[in-house]
Each structure stands twice: as C-alpha cells, then as structure tokens.
Design goal:
It is a single chain. It is built from 10 helices and 18 strands. Helices cover 27% and strands 23% of the residues. The protein is an alpha/beta fold and 356 residues long. The longest helix is centred in the N-terminal third of the chain and has 16 residues. It has 2 domains: 63 residues, no CATH class; 273 residues, 4-Layer Sandwich (Metallo-beta-lactamase, Chain A), CATH 3.60.15.10. Strands 9-7-6-5-4-3-17-18 form an 8-stranded mixed sheet, with no helix packed on it. Strands 10-12-13-14-15-16 form a 6-stranded mixed sheet. Strands 1-2 form a two-stranded antiparallel sheet.
C-alpha cells in the first residue's frame, strides 16, 4: 500500500456555506418564530446556488491506496527462502515458504501483517524443508491458492513434501510443472516470466546437490526491469544456463542461489547476470551460509548485497520508474527464536552433504 499524507486547509469555496449557516443559526436564536421561518425558507431557496464541495480529508489524515506497479518482498524466515510478490493488477504470488509451518514463523507473521487470505500463484522451487515447510502453513490455514508450480523431484529423505503435494491435490489447486526454456503465465499484462531450469521429468533423490539443482530458476520482467530467482541452484546449473541462455540472464536484481553458499554464485554466472542488487535469504545455520567467497564474487560484479539475517525483510518496488528499494518495517516480530533455524531431523532435514 502507498500512504499519502494530506495537509490541505479547508478551501475558500466553503466560506459562503459556513457564513450562511452562521447567519441562519443567529436568526433562529434571536428572531420571532414567524420571521425565522420566513428567513429559513428564503435561505433554503438560495442554497442550491452555493456549490458546496465534498469535505477534504482532515488535516494530517492518512489515505491508503493500492500500490501501483510491482512490489517484491524477500521475507526474513530465518534459514530458508520465501519471496512474496504483489503484481501490478492486484494479483499476488509466493515463492517458497521457509523452514517452518508454525503460526509463529516468519512467513506466517508476514502474511498476517499483510492480511493475505488469497494467493494467485505459489511456486515451490524444490522439495527441501527450508523451502516447503512454510507452504504447509499456507495450505493448512485457510489461505486460498489458485495455482501451484512444482518440480517433479521427489525428496526420498522426507515425507513432508509428499504431505504438501497431497494437500495441494486435495484442495483442487491447479498444479503446473514448468519446463526449462518455457514460461509461467500468471495472467498479468506486462509481466513476463522466463524459466531457465526445472526438473520437469521425474527425479527421486535424497542428496542435497541433486534436489538443489532441480530448482525452478526463472526471471520475472516488468516495465523494462527484471529479477532473477535462483532457488538453491548450484554451480552446475549456473554453468549450464550461461551456456544456453547467456545474455537472457541479465537482471537488475538477483535472489542469490542456495543462501550464498560456496557451491553457487560463480563469477562467470554473475558476470552474465550483472545484478545491481543481490539478496541473500539466510538465518542462523551450521552450513557456513553465506560464504565469504559468494559475497566477494557478488561485490566483484558491482552488486550491492543484502542479507535477511542482518537486514531483515527487504522490499523493492517498480511503479514505472525502475526498481527502487523500499524501507520495510515489520509491525510484528519477524519470527520467533524457535523458528529461526531449520528442523534438522532425518525426515525434515532440508539439504544434504553439499551444505558444509
């Protein structure tokens, strides 16, 4: 929402009406009843000749209007990923949900603060718990979802991704499987989404690298600006897509792959993307995220780096004049200490051997 402060004094055109009201009050108070009645009739007959505009907002009033353009939030969910998008025509989208399905999680608090009860498009980039767990909250707390975008990758080390997909199916949500080289159609004029990577054919694995590299990687473009979302894709995917797509990867903003691990954000890839701003979604962890090498690589191509563990939820907007950062301030605490880290139990463990 945009907030507009109004400080305008009452316009001069109101003065005749105010004077007339004052005179009428004086006549009724001090004049004989018959004279007062005659005066009232005469004043009432003349009233249509005075144009009285609608009263302006009171001084220092706050008006709320639907924000135009595109608004993207990199949500502070602790050690995990979640991005919420407000689209130009009032539609919205959610990419991943972070590491917790709790009602006190970072995503749950964010959605409550934004009064979100309906999401047009939900994307699960890949089936790791630090990406899908928060989506269990979405699908179990009455938030209506129209479309669900998924890979065909099955995390054999967890049953919770199966639970999520079963819930999506039970609710009759339209499920889509993006294909590399294809698009996602969110039905918003002027918004284009190109997919660069996805496991659209069935894959079953439990190791972190395989599942990470099944991430749906895509670029959202609007009004000449663009944002590249990398999921947890690692160097193998980065190398493959720069060979195949090259200049198409260029983007103003990068959602950094794999929480800024040492297995992602290679220099050749970043040189092709050439982002102005890079967002690392990360929390307390034992994996060494983000790595200093990834941060140095990002800075070497001129990117300004932001981290949700240090900077909190980050917001960018494009209202027709290019992407601009916005100072986001959460009204509620962004997540509880209990939800700040990933569930590392064997069934819920999110990653695998490539996360040291």
């Amino acid at each position: 929402m945009h907030r507009v402060i109004k400080n305008s004094p009452a316009p001069a055109v109101l003065r005749p009406a105010l004077i007339a009201a004052f005179l009428l009050s004086a006549i009724i108070q001090f004049s004989p009843r018959a004279f007062a009645g005659l005066a009232f009739d005469q004043l009432n007959a003349a009233a249509p000749q005075v144009e009285v505009p609608l009263a302006p907002p009171p001084q220092n009033a706050t008006e709320y209007r639907a924000a135009p353009g595109l608004n993207v939030y990199f949500v502070n969910v602790g050690q995990g990923d979640s991005e919420y998008i407000e689209l130009p025509d009032g539609k919205n989208a959610l990419i991943d949900g972070g590491p917790s399905s709790s009602a006190s999680s970072g995503l749950a608090r964010f959605l409550k603060e934004k009064n979100v009860t309906h999401i047009d498009d939900v994307v699960l980039t890949h089936p790791h718990a630090d990406h899908f767990s928060g989506l269990l909250y979405v699908f179990s707390h009455g938030i209506k979802v129209d479309n669900f975008y998924d890979t065909r990758a099955d995390n054999t080390g967890s049953t919770m991704d199966d639970k999520l997909r079963s819930e999506v199916s039970a609710q009759g949500v339209n499920t889509h499987y993006p294909v590399a080289g294809g698009t996602m159609d969110w039905g918003v004029p002027g918004v284009d989404i190109k997919v660069f990577n996805a496991c659209s054919d069935p894959v079953s694995a439990s190791d972190g690298a395989t599942l990470n590299n099944c991430s749906i990687v895509f670029k959202l473009s609007y009004d000449g600006a663009s944002i590249l979302f990398m999921g947890d894709a690692q160097a193998d995917v980065e190398n493959a897509i720069i060979q195949k797509y090259g200049p198409e990867l260029k983007a103003d903003v990068l959602k950094v792959g794999h929480h800024g691990s040492k297995y992602s954000s290679t220099v050749p890839f970043l040189q092709d993307v050439s982002p102005q701003r890079a967002y690392i979604e990360v929390g307390q962890n034992n994996y060494g995220h983000p790595s200093q090498q990834a941060i140095s690589n990002l800075q070497s191509v001129g990117a300004q780096v932001f981290r949700t563990d240090q900077d909190g939820t980050q917001e960018i907007t494009d209202n027709g004049s290019g992407i601009q950062p916005v100072s986001y301030r959460a009204l509620l605490p962004e997540f509880s200490t209990a939800d700040a880290t990933v569930d590392n139990t064997p069934d819920g463990g999110p990653e695998g051997p490539n996360d040291d």
